[in-house]
Automatic annotation (TrEMBL):
UniProt xrefs under SUPFAM superfamilies: Glyoxalase/Bleomycin resistance protein/Dihydroxybiphenyl dioxygenase
Domain VOC: 17-127
Gene3D superfamilies, alphabetized: 2,3-Dihydroxybiphenyl 1,2-Dioxygenase, domain 1
PANTHER family: CONSERVED PROTEIN (PTHR33993:SF10), GLYOXALASE-RELATED (PTHR33993)
Name by which UniProt lists this protein: VOC family protein
Amino acid sequence: MAENRASAEENTYGEGVPCWVDAQLPDLAAGRRFYGELFGWTFEEAYGGSVWARKDGEAVAGLAHKADGRMPTVWTVYFATPDVVRLSGRIREAGGQVVMAPVALGELGTAALAADPEGAVFGLWQAARHSGFGIRHKPGTFGWAELYARDTETANTFYGGLFTDALFGPDAAPDFGRAPVSDVFPVEMPPHFLVHFRVEDIEPVLGAVQRLGGRVQVPLFETSYGKVAVVTDNQGASFALLQR
């Protein structure tokens, strides 16, 4: 079983900071080919048959086989927490749901899945030997997560109550934001998190996505945090490309 080369003590993330992303894919081998060529990722076996993607030798994402065809093919963002059980209780008290109860993944840490009051799903991660991203904010690595909500005031109240320090504390440098779904997507699109990966030059990467069998879901647009385009991979998992 592989593990992040940086221990949890060496590279910790405060509660509410995005610390990991993974994708559940029907065809793991096809996912490795797509993302390996798109972002220059290399891969190694990890817990339970999943694989870790590495960029410049550092862990940047996970890919796992989707065993249940009824589950969506998606990228999930995980928020760090020192106590996943306690945070799960706070999520319920705030009007959210726990979709998957906390489960220990060997010596790596403990994971859970939750949903906010509007149904947007996100992950929780309590680190043990695996702290999360080895690197981020570099080309080919995690750069941002945007929550597309129907009611941003409700979202601000919910996440602000859960992750006050990460969003509003004196050392806050949030890696996720909130926007109305209708700003980018059709109004019928359900609320969701969209994982963004950094790129140096977005135009050629958009061409590579299509060449590799993916598609452009939302063409290039400007945001307060950079140029963004929403794409899907060759199996239908949506993510965004971000050029700062």
